Amino acid sequence: MSEFNGKKLRRTHKGRIVAGVCSGIGEYVGIDPNMVRIALAIATLFGGLGVGVYAIGWLLMPDEHSDTSIVQDLVSKQQERGSTDWSGEHKPQP
């Protein structure tokens, strides 16, 4: 069987202004990234939702040259540290 090679939602470098979220969404959906930017700007003006959506996209969308997002990298680093919790304290093994 052939592997599915569909589009993947990624932050792009081409057309990037801040973190590439809008250009990545625009490329994925097939619209001009400026339309996404305008929509987020309007959402920001009417309640501030646009900033939160952009920040979540930045944290959860992987870069086009990476397979993992920022959040996935943080979680995997924490798992590599083993039984040490977020405060830096070592937990005893059961």
Automatic annotation (TrEMBL):
Gene Ontology CC entries for this record: plasma membrane
Its chief place of residence is membrane
Q: What is this protein called?
A: PspC domain-containing protein
Recite the UniProt keywords alphabetically: Cell membrane, Membrane, Transmembrane, Transmembrane helix
| UniProt keyword Transmembrane helix present | yes
Cell compartments where the protein resides: Cell membrane
- Origin species, per record, is Nonomuraea phyllanthi
Organism domain of life: Bacteria
**Topology in membrane:** Single-pass membrane protein
